[in-house]
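Researcher: Quick test of sequence recovery. Tokens follow.
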């Protein structure tokens, strides 16, 4: 039951450290795969140690790791020995990158107010309250305005997209329309 004046929906915005770390490793090793929807990480990282690994094996493992990250199919690190070893060697550069990435950020800004206003405007357009829903947005630390829908109420979005109300509304509209 909904109390008058209270939203019947929730949107949670968070970061996924496993996704951030994996994308860092991907870029530091200069891995690529056609199945990979993500742009380069932001801030960018130099290629570190790409010549010290079996690239073919690492790219095969990257595709499996990406599936784990996108669709929650958690496996054991033993299933990706080349990337696990490389990731361990990249721990310190990853820590430096994380500090740099988070430096100057005063916590998530992510436009929570414009998201609230946007969903509330759906009620006006529909002429009724929106149906109850919960939406999860995971921030991907990548360059540009990135958006990926991995489930009906589960999105990945870049900080740049979340901080651009107009660009975000273009991506967000069909998602909310389907849920509302």
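Model:
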């Amino acid at each position: 039951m909904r109390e008058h004046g209270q939203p019947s929906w929730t949107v949670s915005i968070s970061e996924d450290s496993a996704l951030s770390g994996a994308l860092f490793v991907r870029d530091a090793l200069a891995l690529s795969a056609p199945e990979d929807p993500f742009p380069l990480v932001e801030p960018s990282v130099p290629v570190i140690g790409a010549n010290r690994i079996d690239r073919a094996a690492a790219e095969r493992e990257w595709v499996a790791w990406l599936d784990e990250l996108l669709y929650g199919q958690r496996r054991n690190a033993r299933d990706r020995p080349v990337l696990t070893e490389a990731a361990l060697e990249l721990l310190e550069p990853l820590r430096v990158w994380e500090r740099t990435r988070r430096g100057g950020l005063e916590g998530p800004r992510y436009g929570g107010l414009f998201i609230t206003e946007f969903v509330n405007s759906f009620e006006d357009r529909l002429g009724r309250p929106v149906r109850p829903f919960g939406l999860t947005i995971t921030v991907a630390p990548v360059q540009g305005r990135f958006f990926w829908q991995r489930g009906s109420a589960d999105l990945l979005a870049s900080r740049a997209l979340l901080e651009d109300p107009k660009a975000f509304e273009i991506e967000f509209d069909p998602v909310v329309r389907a849920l509302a």
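The chain has two domains: 9-13+107-179, 17-102.
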